[in-house]
Amino acid sequence: MRLVDLQQIGNELALKWDDGSEDFITLEKLRRECPCAGCRGEMDVMGNLYKGPEQTLTPLAFQLRQIARVGTYGIQPHWGDGHNTGIYSFDYLRKIAK
Ligand SMILES: [Zn+2]
Predict the structure, then answer these.
(1) Strands (E), 1-98
(2) Ligand 1 center to residue 2 CA distance, Å?
(3) Which of 35, 49, 73, 79 is most buried as measured by Cβ atoms within 10 A of its Cβ?
(4) CA 32 / ligand 1 centre spacing (Å)
């Protein structure tokens, strides 16, 4: 599955796929599903989950500054609060859009 186009429409991100389907994800949901280690935690080899301190998300955290394309497999949003370490693969985007 390839992303053909993405556009911010109001507070949603519209994703258009190469099979002609479209998905819409609100920016708030997108940010809350951030897959980076800082937001999601990191698993060590023993299966222990390490998470950073709980983040308090401000309204800025749900504002999109820009989105960078990452290779041919994902996107990297830059948020209003400076957070930009989350890389969302197309598969992951499809999953959270459902
Ligand atoms: Zn994150």
Answers:
(1) 3-9, 12-17, 22-26, 42-43, 49-50, 64-70, 74-79, 88-89
(2) 23
(3) 79
(4) 8
